[in-house]
Amino acid sequence: MEPTEIIVNLATSAVSLVVAYLSKGAKEVAKGAGQEAGKTVGVAAWKKATELYESIKTKFSGEKTAAEALEGLAKVPDDVDAQAVVRSQLITIMKQDNAFAKQVAILLTDAVDSNVDTVFHTNIAGDVGKFVQIGVVHGNVNI
Which of 42, 49, 58, 68 is the most interior residue, by most CB within 10 Å? Predict the structure, then answer.
């Protein structure tokens, strides 16, 4: 994989996690229920998502356009155009700063290790009669 491809993949993954964090957690924090939000999404997952968001926010603070893009995303996390702008800014900055790109990669790896992808991406909608969530299965399963 080419270095540019790696950076694009890192940026895409980082934005996905930040969007999930902002959508699920920041609303609760704004309501003054940060501790409850932390319990709901899992302490380790919450911590890793927070670290990633704060790391990006700190790095973007030195770049006006990037900081404004992240602020816009924080206001409306589900806006795909805002996500694209943050992803673009993140790609540009990571291409210029290898140390920051490595930091993002480490934070994303740590997030995966804390099962943040499972915690943040479980969405259920509609009329669910029977719901079973299974992690790793060894052997037969009868439901």
Answer: 49
Do residues 95 and 4 touch, judged by C-beta distance below 8 A?
A: yes
- Which of these, 1, 5, 8, lies nearest to 88 by C-alpha position? 8
* Amino acid occupying residue 40: T
| Residue 31 three-state SS | coil
Strands (E), 22-76: none
Domain ranges of the chain: 3-120
What is this structure's pTM? 0.70
CB count in 10 Å sphere of residue 1: 7
Task: Round to whole Å and give the CA distance between 124 and 121.
Answer: 10
- How far apart are alpha carbons 86 and 72 in whole angstroms? 9
Amino acid at 56: I
In 5-95 the beta strands, taken as DSSP E runs, fall at none
